[in-house]
Amino acid sequence: xxxxxxxxxxxxxxxxxxxxxxxxxxxxxxxxxxxxxxxxxxxxxxxxxxxxxxxxxxxxxxxxxxxxxxxxxxxxxxxxxxxxxxxxxxxxxxxxxxxxxxxxxxxxxxxxxxxxxxxxxxxxxxxxxxxxxxxxxxxxxxxxxxxxxxxxxxxxxxxxxxxxxxxxxxxxxxxxxxxxxxxxxxxxxxxxxxxxxxxxxxxxxxxxxxxxxxxxxxxxxxxxxxxxxxxxxxxxxxxxxxxxxxxxxxxxxxxxxxxxxxxxxxxxxxxxxxxxxxxxxxxxxxxxxxxxxxxxxxxxxxxxxxxxxxxxxxxxxxxxxxxxxxxxxxxxxxxxxxxxxxxxxxxxxxxxxxxxxxxxxxxxxxxxxxxxxxxxxxxxxxxxxxxxxxxxxxxxxxxxxxxxxxxxxxxxxxxxxxxxxxxxxxx
Length: 427
Prior knowledge:
The structure is a single chain. The chain is built from six helices and 32 strands. The protein is of the alpha+beta class. The protein has a 20-stranded mixed beta sheet that branches. A hairpin with a 2-residue loop joins strand 27 (362-366) and strand 28 (369-372). The longest helix is centred in the N-terminal third of the chain and has 23 residues, at 5-27. It starts with a helix and ends in a 17-residue tail after the last strand.
C-alpha cells in the first residue's frame, strides 16, 4: 500500500500532538486541593517535628515547627548537596518579597548554598536556644504531600534561608532547620497558597501523644468540630530576636480581655492584656515553641491563687517549672482527663472564650503528682500571655488569613483527638 507525502505528514503531526499531550499530562499532576504535613511530638524535647523533601536529588529534611516563624530555614553548612539551588540576588523580586534589608556583597569562601556573592540576607532564629544569626536567601526544589490523594507535589523554586550548624543548638536529634508558619509572604503557608492557588487557610492540630498530628494548608471542612472565631491582631512591633525598625510581629496574637476560673472572673491589671502600640509589650499570642502557657507574673499569681482556691485540695512540693502541684490521689477524672476547674480565656465578649479543660491544663509529672501546666514569665515579660504548645494540643485551630481570624475547637471535649482527625476538602 502506498502513502502520499501529505498523508504521512498528517500522521506524523497527529503522533507528535498525541506525544505532546501525553507528556504534558504526565508532567503536570492535578492541582492539589490542600497540602498536609504530619507532625509528631519529640518525647525528649517536647518539640513538634515535621518533615519535607528538598533539593536535587530529593532528601528528607526534619524541621521543628515554629507557628510564628518568618520562613523556612535549613542548615546549609553541613551536608547540603544539591544541583538546583538558586541564590536570591540583591534587589531581586524574591528579596523584595521577603523584605530583606541586608545584602551579602562578597562571601570569602568557595561558592556554595549559604555563601554566594550579591545575595540578600535575612536572620534565621532558633527560639529554643534562643539564638539568631544572618543567613542568605535562596530557593531550591521542595516536595510535600498532597492532601486526600497522598501524592507528592513539587515546587521548583521554594524560598528559604540558609542557616548555620550552631543554630541547631537545643533542637531535637536529626532536626536540621525550622518551618516558619508566620505572617510573612515567604512563610510556608504563603508560598503553598501561591504555588497551588489554595484558599488562604491554615489548619493546625497538634497531638499530645507520640501519634501524628497535622498541619493543613488550604480550606477544610470543620463541621465535625465546629469552630469558635476570634479576630487575629497585629502587634506593630516585631517579637523576633533580630528585626528592622518599624517591622511588625509575624506571630499570631488574639485579644484576650479577661480570665475566668470555674467561670468566675479573676482580678489582675487588665491593661497588661492590651498590646502597647509603642513598644509591642503585652497582649496574647499562640506559640508552638513555648512548651507551656507562660503568664506575666502578676497574672500568673492571680491564676494560681484562684485555681488552688477552686480546686480546694492541698498543694504538694512544686516541680519545676510549675508552681502549683497536687497529689494525684486528690485529683479525680472526668472523661479520662483530670477533673479540675476550667480556665477560660475570655475574648471579644463574655460569651466567646477559649476554655481550657483538665486535659490541657494539668501535667502528669509523676505517678503521684499532677501540676498546673502554666509557667511564670516574669515581671517584664515581652508578651503577657503566651499560649504554649501543651494548651494547644488536641485543639483544632484554623487561621484564616483572608478574614484575619482564628477558629478553635477543643477536640477532647468532642471526644476526638488530633491523631485521627480527618481533614477533608471543603467543596
